[in-house]
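Entry 14. Structure prediction run on the chain below.
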Amino acid sequence: MGASLGLVIGGLFASLLSWRYAFFVNVPIAIVMFIWATKAVRSSRSQKGSFDGIGSLLSLLGMISLVYGILLVSESSTAWDWIIAAVILLGLFIWREAKVAQPIMPLRVFKNSERAGAYLARMLFLGAMMAFWFFITQFLQEVYGFSPLMAGLGFFPMTIANFISALQVSKLTAKFGNGMTLVGGLVLTIIGMFWLSFAGNGSNYVLAIALPMILIGAGQGAVLSPLTTAGIAQINARDAGAASGVVNVAHQVGGSLGLALLVVLSSVVANSNSLVIRTDWALRGGVAFLVIALILTFIMIVPKKNKN
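Output returned:
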C-alpha cells in the first residue's frame, strides 16, 4: 500500500515542485522513524558473533553485475561478460555461505519447500509488479497525457482495492488457509495484468486501466502477507531472522531483476519505439511471471507437507 500511495505523493511533488523532492521527502521521514525507534524499540541481549562481510560483498557485486548485464543484452556485446561475472560471483557467494560459520544467508532455510517456493514466488510477483508500476506510470503520462499528479491519482483504484483486500487477509486465511488465499490473490492479479496489457491509444481509462487496476490491487493485497507467512513457515528460532531477511531479499532482488528482464523483453520482442506496444509486452511478460508463481504455489506452498 505504501508503494501505491507513494506514486500519488511522488506525482504531487513532481507536478507542484520538482521530481527531486520525491527523494528529499525520505529524509524527514527517516529522521522521524529514527526518533520513534529509539523510544519504541527495546534493546535485546547482546550476543557474540561475526558479520560475514565477504559474503555480503560477493552477493552485492553479483546482483549488480547480473542486473546490469541483463539491461545491456540488447545494447552491448559486453552484456555476457557482466552476466558471466555475476554467475561466478554468486556461485562464490553460495559456496561461502555453505562453509562460513555464521553466514548471512544460511542455506538450510531453503531446505523447506514451502519457504523456498515462497521466496521464488515473491521474486516473480515483485518482478511483475515493478514492471507494472514502471510502464503504467509512463503510459498514463505519455499516452493519456496525464500530468505526474494525475498519473499518481490514476493509480487510486489499485490503492483503494489493495487497502481493502489487505485488511481482509486475516479473515481469508482463517477460512481458506494461507495457500489458497495466495492462489486467489495470484489469480486476480493475473487476470488484471492480462486485461491491462490490451490498453491502447484510444482506450477508455475506466475500462482499460481502472477496472484491471482494481483486480491487481485486490490481488496484491491478498498475496504479499501469505507469501511472508510461507517464507518463515516452520523455521527454527535460531534462523527466524535469517528467513525474514531472505523474504526481504527476495522482495528487493525480485523487483530489480524482474524489471530488468521485462524492460529487455519489451525492447527486443516488441522491436518498436511505441510505448504502447512495449508496455503491452512488458505486462504480458509479467503475466508469465505470475503464472509461474501460481504453479510454484500449487506445487510447493499449498500442500503444506514440508518438514524442516
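The chain has twelve helices and no strands.
Filed with the rest of this week's runs.
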